[in-house]
Write a structure and sequence with these properties.
Helix 1 packs across helix 2 and helix 3 runs parallel beside helix 4. The protein is globular, with a radius of gyration of 17 Å. The protein has a single domain, classed as Rossmann fold (3-Layer(aba) Sandwich), CATH 3.40.50.150. By secondary structure, it is of the alpha/beta class. 37% of the residues lie in helices and 14% in strands. Helix 8 links the parallel strand 4 and strand 5. The protein binds S-adenosylmethionine. The site of S-adenosylmethionine (SAM) has 21 residues, from helix 1 and helix 3.
Length: 270
Amino acid sequence: MERPAWAPRSIDVSVPSVSRIYDYYLGGSHNFEVDREAARKAMEFLPGLPKISQANRAFMRRAVRFAVGEGISQFLDIGSGIPTFGNVHEVAQGARPGAHVVYVDHDPVAVAHSQAVLAGNDDADVVAADLRKPREILDSAPVRRLIDLNRPVALLLVAILHFVEDADDPYGAVAELRDALAPGSLLVLTHASYEGVPLPPERAGGAVDVYHDIRNPLIMRSREEIARFFEGYDMVEPGLVPMPHWRPDTAPEDEDPYAFSGFAGVGRTA
Ligand SMILES: C[S@@+](CC[C@H](N)C(=O)[O-])C[C@H]1O[C@@H](n2cnc3c(N)ncnc32)[C@H](O)[C@@H]1O
């Protein structure tokens, strides 16, 4: 297979990746047939995956604008993915020129693509690192250069924690990051859940099996389990809610029912 310019040499293009599957759900072009095959298989069980992904991106953009409105000018986006339209740096720097943004992802395609998109942008950078090792993220050169941990930060963990198994202590990683942040920092989070999916869990579970088969397990957590990630934060209104219900720009009533799967919330450190 011919390797496109955006695909780093280090990657095995015969193995599907979570970030490229997500890119496919969002109509992006940074995916291979193996990714599209896995995505289509997951969509056989959960046809609303593109709608869920769009609702997730729309929430993220609203939350970034909210953070800028709260006076935040630094953003740490872990699990940033393959930038598609309306990225964190575009939204943040559009609303507040000079806002600092650091993207973090462990997927080489996501990192390479962010590097390309951010070329010439001195106020944004990307780190190849793993959420399960928060210290490496906090000690990385881009974070040291662009993020002043003595001032409030918006920490984005958007559609990433459902890829971290309990055995890898996602709650510990989130707590370690929280403890590094100044008071007034925000946690912006979304997470997949069977709650709200307009299908019986057994059927939606077929999509989970697809991720299991590609050795990137997708962990559906309950609302209660997701709420625990906000320990040490005060929830910003309206709390932990289906994505379209978080401070919508327009009334969400006519949205596709799938868009209401999973949960979104923003918390603030005291
Ligand atoms: C579904 S995408 C979400 C992208 C973006 N945050 C959004 O919501 O539009 C999940 C991203 O998290 C990344 N990811 C998954 N587990 C990770 C980990 N342990 N450390 C860093 N990145 C991770 C994947 O590579 C992928 O790019």
